[in-house]
Input
Amino acid sequence: MKEKYPLFQVMGKDGKWQDQTYEKELNEAKVKSLYYHMLRIRTYDQKGVALQRQGRIGTYVPFAGQEAAQVGSALALGEEDWMFPTYRDHGASLAFGADLDMMLLHWNGRIEGCLPSRKKHIMPASIPIATHLPHATGAAMAETYKGSKNATIAYFGDGATSEGDFHEGLNIASVFKAPVVFFNQNNGYAISLPVEKQMNSETIAQKAEAYGIPGIRVDGMDVLAVYIAVQQALDKAKRGEGPTLIEAVTMRFGAHTTADDPSKYRNQDEINQKREVVDPLIRIEKHMKGRHIWDSAWQSSLSEEIGEELDNAISRMENYQKPVVSDMFDYVFEKPTWTIAKQRQQIISRGGRG
Ligand SMILES: Cc1ncc(C[n+]2csc(CCOP(=O)(O)OP(=O)(O)O)c2C)c(N)n1
Output
């Protein structure tokens, strides 16, 4: 099956052109923008893990290693397209235009950070695995009924493809030719379960065959290839030619979440050695150097600007007004159940700010 679904690459592992067809489109400005967003979300992710370790935010979901997959896909979207992310795709959301302050408030456990994005069509991150795939199909169908040309992208992991909702989402999208791109990030693990134990399918892309839609396998460490593959799938969707399943083969460098200890199920030394070789930021840097569009002064000032932006946003998060305890209960159901109403009352009577 790997021969039938070859890995699409625009850059080789050494950063050199593998496929120069898209050279014009991947001009200096575009490549610099892809690099900027990857560096921004890498820095944000490092700070996220550090903040959690220092007890300054709650559980955090790292995505280091998946920056090319997340940025390449997000930057291929049109202004009015819809994004359905999971808990791990906050890098993609930020690259698409999610509000940084709200994102940090979300990780800080604040209700204000859970409100829908004001800037872009970004749905709240799905914590249940794959339940958002039928929703994404529905949103895509709604856009068609409205007569718009907006497409939808739905993110999910390798583990999600074992869920019933994956099947339902893809099948209905295929039957109704919904303008949706199913963007899988195969990072090799569903928490501690390696993909080889998750399924007997050699690839995830081949699962598209069951629904009669195209399946594409792309190197998820190659930001240029991801950008091109997603853009082509979105264009196809917008032409009314239906959905595509894309498998971006990638790697999660860190833990599943900060509540996970990956050393229990994989060899950290091996991972650390491997990440040096496959790091998507190093790959695009090599590519840019090869094209003589790398400028270390530009990179340093970018790095400084991003650090400052993040430090200021973190300080705003920490100086944000104190949380209201009843927020924990008020947004579960439209009308609280008696159990929730009782818990709310108990906390407030113990001195919580209601
Ligand atoms: C419906 C459902 N079942 C189980 C879980 C518990 N759970 C949280 S993350 C996870 C693994 C998901 O793996 P994958 O889809 O590969 O995505 P990744 O975390 O690697 O991005 C599971 C089983 C859940 N959140 N939702």
